[in-house]
Amino acid sequence: MKKMFILFVGIFLLTSCASPQLSNKEMVSLIENFVEEQQLERDHTVSAFRLDSYGQLSDEYLIFRSSPSRHFLIKLVPRCDAIGFSAALLLHRRFGNTLSEGSDFVYVPDSLPFRCYINRIYPLSREQHDLLRETIQTEIKELELKEQRLEEAEAKAEVES
């Protein structure tokens, strides 16, 4: 089991280095367009919230999962670039099992006392969560195609010269 985990982590690290990534600015723009297109409504407070897992989309946006069917798009203020370099994320909630805009914040153990406050909470349906993931994957594939075409054009230019 331990060997499988190490193998999986190794493969993930190699593929993440090799595959193109959207810049923070591009990702934020993509997410904000998604929020507009889907007309997502903010939820200022989420009760009965228990953080199951999270995923970083950019320095400003995270996805929190509290159960397999409950996902939340979280906007942070200020930008939290330290999250991408940390193995853990800590969530501070002012009121027990409630997640609230403005008063609750996230931080990484290495960045204390720096806090990234939860500025907006957008509940996502399962379909919206899947659509957001597909939108991001599509954008990354388009970026890969552009890079591939550029490499082919450069190789062709070298052969011709």
From TrEMBL:
Where does the UniProt annotation place the signal sequence?
Answer: 1-18
| Keywords annotated in UniProt | Coiled coil, Signal
Q: Which domain of life does the protein's organism represent?
A: Bacteria
Checking InterPro entries in the record gives: DUF6491
Q: Where are the transmembrane segments?
A: none
Record's Pfam families? DUF6491
Keyword Membrane recorded:
no
The record's listing under PROSITE patterns reads: PROKAR_LIPOPROTEIN (PS51257)
Which residues, by range, are in coiled-coil regions? 126-160
Protein name (record): DUF6491 family protein
UniProt organism field: Alteromonas gilva
